[in-house]
Amino acid sequence: MDFPLALAVHGGAGTISRDQMTPELERQYRDALQQIIETGYDVLRHGGLALDAVEAAVRALEDCPMFNAGKGAVFTHDGRHEMDAALMDGRDRSAGAVAGVRNIQNPIGLCRLVMEKSDHVLLAWPGAEEFAREHNVPMQPDDYFFTQQRYDQLQGALKSGKVQLDHSHNDSPKENPKSKIGTVGAVARDRHGNLAAATSTGGMTNKRYSRIGDSPVIGSGTFADNHTCAVSCTGTGEFFLRAVAAYDVACLIEYRGLSLAEACNIVVHDKLAPVGGDGGLIAVDTAGNLALPFNSEGMYRGTLTSETPLYIGIFKE
């Protein structure tokens, strides 16, 4: 028996504010999200595994300079790009993750190699780069990751002396940097009923000290288990780390018998929001139900299943 297919993606919670989102820019984001969703869903439609689908979707997100991952990663305080990512297979909870990697074209692909070609789960730079070179992972020069928007964000952050999250606008007093979060991710269920999750990020603009957020930490920013759900988070990573947010969703389903929607809403709105944990998550459960809650102004997101049409959203509806 084939299970219904389901895929959800996010391009980060905390979007550009409505008064700064032009119709043309919104169209560009929606077109990009549609293409990315279709890339991941094509894998499912042709019988591919959920793991392959989320990797394909996140690769496409990493290749799009509009999102804070891969090619579109933000700058650190030192003018570099330090990227984090994680991938998890719900079939057996196998996982691979990397932190602080530089010049890796697609960090999510390196996560897959860590999962399948090493005895480890999480590798950090510089060892992760050594591992990548041993496996001929595609690398790119610094110029590949340069975008003017990200560079301008860094200059503004350096001037103000603050660490900023993606989509912050330095010239707008109405913008709250805490509510602007940039991470990408995908969750999926394949025709065999398997679940998987993937997350990738460039982190914070002007970050220092090799800061690492929740994205590459299994259980905090990324989690998948065929018995419960698959989750990819986006938000102020320090709070998602403390809350073990992704795993908490699975625990609420497994130990309290809550639905996916109930579990996600408790984590995002009742646990994270009151302590300043701005952001959101995407999740899929064993029945193929999808949830995309967020407590920020918006979240770039989209879904496609074998039973529902393409959906793309940016702001609250």
UniProtKB/TrEMBL annotation:
Gene3D superfamilies: (Glycosyl)asparaginase (3.60.20.30). Transmembrane segments: none annotated. Keywords: Autocatalytic cleavage, Hydrolase, Protease. Substrate binds at R211, I212, G213, D214, T234, G235, T236, G237. The active site is at T183. SUPFAM superfamilies: N-terminal nucleophile aminohydrolases (Ntn hydrolases). The record marks G182, T183 as: Cleavage. One of its GO terms (molecular function) is peptidase activity. InterPro entries: Ntn_hydrolases_N, Peptidase_T2. The keyword Hydrolase applies. GO terms for biological process: proteolysis. This is Isoaspartyl peptidase.
